[in-house]
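stage 2 :: seqdesign
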């Protein structure tokens, strides 16, 4: 089993920045992809950014140029640096880890961007 714990969410004004962190623990042996997803009220969960173990990062068009995903493999940490935040970025942000054909999710962290 894999556990994911997100942190770093909060309330920020439009134009501000936040850095989300995700700590992974448990039976981690061969990560295929780690990523960030978000779900706004009344909307479906959507991909924000993904970081495969091999290959290029992938960003949603809505966050390109503003968000940066990164990973510290030595610490099993995943990060999402969010700059230039907009009210439409308000959502619960989830960390995800895929390995061995299974996907694990964190409990989510709330990000609220005020006008």
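stage 2 :: out
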């Amino acid at each position: 089993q894999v556990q994911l714990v997100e942190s770093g969410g909060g309330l920020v004004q439009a134009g501000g920045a936040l850095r989300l962190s995700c700590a992974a623990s448990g039976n981690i042996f061969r990560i295929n992809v780690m990523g960030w997803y978000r779900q706004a009220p009344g909307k479906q969960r959507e991909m924000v950014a993904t970081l495969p173990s091999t290959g290029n990062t992938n960003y949603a068009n809505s966050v390109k140029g503003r968000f940066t995903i990164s990973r510290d493999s030595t610490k099993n940490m995943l990060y999402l640096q969010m700059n230039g935040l907009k009210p439409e970025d308000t959502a619960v942000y989830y960390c995800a880890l895929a390995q061995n054909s299974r996907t694990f999710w964190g409990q989510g962290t709330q990000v609220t961007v005020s006008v």
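stage 3 :: structure notes
- Residues 10 and 86 are 13 Å apart (CA to CA).
- The radius of gyration is 13 Å.
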